[in-house]
Design brief:
With 220 residues, this protein is of the alpha/beta class. It has two domains: 2-140, Hexapeptide repeat proteins (UDP N-Acetylglucosamine Acyltransferase, domain 1); 153-214, no CATH class. Helix content is 34%, strand content 23%. It contains six helices and 19 strands. It is globular.
């Protein structure tokens, strides 16, 4: 009984947190933060509130939960009375993993990948995948894509539309993972509030087309 009463309260708290997060992001945009088309920014992304106008996020980028993007460094302020300020650019098609930290003066991509938890203090070249503290390139994005293509060709792939419509239930996914440690889900939700400046129909259609190239025999 208590859990039933707490459920709507929990939903309301989560909704309020989400709305506050989006309002904060909108304020940063009004203050000069540049965000391109079809950009995915999850909740709790910390974008430098002092210098948002120095930060640029290009088209089709994905920024995961808890990422920090800084355009200033106050390390020297106490002893020198100055703060280092430098622009940050996350260029088209790049992916930033959960809780990565992007420091001032960095350019990432285009089409680069930063692994979760990385600390980026220097540029990540186009098409590279980087990880660590400090982050260093360890592979190319294209090589990672090829590895995933190979895995996806032999693994079970669920369609997000089926999940939304209840055709595929959580237990079906759990059961699939009992037989195989890895599965995939294709496409994205019909509505996703974490996309900005986005056309969801276009994103879903693009996902369908690229999956069709991967597995034409499975795409109808």
């Amino acid at each position: 009984m208590i859990f039933k009463l707490l459920r709507p309260i929990s939903w309301l708290v989560g909704y309020i947190k989400f709305k506050v997060d989006r309002l904060r992001l909108n304020r940063l945009v009004r203050r000069g933060l540049r965000i391109g088309k079809n950009v995915y920014i999850f909740q709790d992304v910390e974008i430098d509130p002092g210098y948002p106008f120095l930060i640029e996020i290009g088209d089709n980028c994905r920024i995961s939960k808890g990422v920090t993007i800084l355009a200033h460094d106050a390390t020297t302020f106490k002893d020198l009375g100055i703060t280092r300020v430098a622009p940050v650019k996350i260029l088209e098609g790049s992916f930033i993993g959960q809780r990565a930290i992007i420091l001032p003066g960095v350019t990432i991509g285009p089409k680069a990948l930063v692994a979760a938890g990385s600390v980026v203090n220097r540029d990540i070249p186009e098409g590279k995948a980087a990880a660590g503290n400090p982050a260093r390139p360890y592979s190319s994005y294209s090589e990672i894509i090829e590895r995933y293509k190979e895995m996806a060709s032999t693994k079970q792939v669920f369609d997000f539309i089926d999940i939304e419509q209840g055709v595929i239930k959580p237990q079906d996914i759990t059961n699939a993972l009992k037989n195989d440690r890895l599965i995939f889900v294709r496409s994205v939700p019909t509505k996703d509030p974490y996309y900005l400046n986005a056309d969801m129909k276009e994103i879903r259609e693009n996902a369908r087309q690229v999956y069709k190239k991967l597995a034409p025999e499975k795409e109808q």
